[in-house]
Task: inverse folding
């Protein structure tokens, strides 16, 4: 450990390039995408990450019947009314990953859809990491790539260049190299991630679309009442000198 510290202290300064976030496709009103995203979440995320603020029964709002939930999505609970919890104990999580995986109930509201969309598409193989994976958006992340079977295995290519203005060595990303193909094509994988992110956004606030629609009606009502009040006020004061 001391050798690592001394080695790091003697190494030249190197800046990390800024990662630009990709825009997540808007699928908040696409029920098919939200249903597919819910399936991906249960099959690939719910093994380690909980969603304790969400109940399985709420998936019926996406057009998924109770029988479909029980047959295809209810793996870690006995009842449809149960919350989306995980069986993994916190102590085991710390031993395996170095930290307890966060609850994802409101992760989309915390991180933002663009961040999640870019993050899930930025994993690459890194044999220097304990899990064997790294991520360009979240460097040295403790989480392994949850969707690697779908995306396949990729390596990231970097080059060190010198910034002309600061003189610092910049570790610059130059692209990915596909090592083994995944079960999905790159375009289909991006679509899968978009569906998953859309579901995470819905899960973080299931009433968001209803709230927006209600807000429009409230504004229209207030506008109408303002007009009526203005005309009543004008009629009341018309004959007053």
Result:
């Amino acid at each position: 450990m001391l050798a690592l510290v001394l080695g790091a202290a003697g190494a030249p300064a190197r800046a990390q390039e800024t990662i630009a976030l990709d825009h997540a496709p808007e699928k908040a009103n696409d029920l098919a995408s939200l249903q597919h995203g819910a399936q991906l979440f249960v099959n690939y995320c719910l093994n380690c990450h909980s969603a304790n603020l969400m109940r399985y029964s709420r998936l019926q709002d996406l057009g998924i019947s109770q029988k479909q939930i029980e047959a295809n999505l209810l793996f870690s609970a006995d009842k449809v009314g149960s919350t989306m919890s995980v069986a993994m104990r916190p102590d085991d999580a710390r031993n395996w990953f170095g930290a307890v995986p966060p609850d994802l109930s409101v992760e989309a509201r915390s991180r933002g859809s663009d961040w999640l969309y870019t993050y899930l598409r930025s994993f690459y193989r890194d044999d220097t990491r304990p899990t064997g994976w790294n991520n360009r958006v979240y460097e040295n992340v403790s989480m392994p790539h949850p969707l690697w079977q779908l995306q396949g295995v990729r390596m990231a290519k970097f080059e060190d260049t010198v910034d002309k203005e600061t003189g610092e060595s910049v570790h610059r990303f130059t692209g990915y190299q596909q090592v083994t193909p995944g079960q999905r094509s790159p375009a289909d994988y991006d679509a899968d991630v978009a569906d998953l992110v859309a579901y995470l956004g819905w899960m973080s606030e299931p009433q968001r679309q209803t709230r927006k629609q209600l807000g429009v009606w409230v504004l229209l009502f207030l506008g109408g009442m303002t007009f009526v009040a203005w005309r009543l006020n004008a009629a009341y004061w018309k004959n007053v000198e």
User: Anything to note?
Assistant: Residues 1-15 have pLDDT under 50 and may be disordered.
